Model the fold of this input.
Amino acid sequence: MHNDEAEGQAFSRVLIALMKGVVYQDTDAAIWQALLGLQARVRDYLAVLGLELVLDEAEGYAWLKSRPAPEEGEALPRLVAKRPLSFPVSLLLALLRKKLAEFDAGGEDTRLILSRDEVVDMVRLFLPAGVNEARIVDQIDTHLNKIIELGFARRMRGQTHLIEVRRILKAFVDAQWLAEFDQRLATYCINVLGSGEQA
Done:
């Protein structure tokens, strides 16, 4: 009975952690180990709720997504809400994802850490001429905070001007998403920046 209770507690903790957001191996090793041990049971339980566990052992993260709607019958209500992202947040995610791809191609380290100034420089290319740059820089902080809140980045402890781009970004921002965003970006460059020129 004691072992059953301990396993039940671990199972509950794993489910609660997953329902709250992304579970990372490097930030919560105990939950991660419990998840690996209880993975089949967790998947079965989540299936009843219309959820699917996405677990990447190599990258060290796990998260939940809604299962595709069945072809026949009524779909379950969504437990995981879809959140529309503003254009600036989408732009920042796309730029960070591309930076992560370049970083991985270099193959030196496993953690992509950027300063706030580097992020500002990445976005500056897409600012229309004559805008109030100080105001835009303040907005970048707001957009960065949103990306951190969504779990795609985190501030470095004791060095808040540095952020680590979380590897889960690769799972959310795939090649298809980037291609669709590139089309939106091309339209933006023509309409806002004029003739596709970047400042």
In short: The two ends are 67 Å apart (CA to CA). Residues 2-66 form a domain with the Arc Repressor Mutant, subunit A fold (CATH 1.10.10).
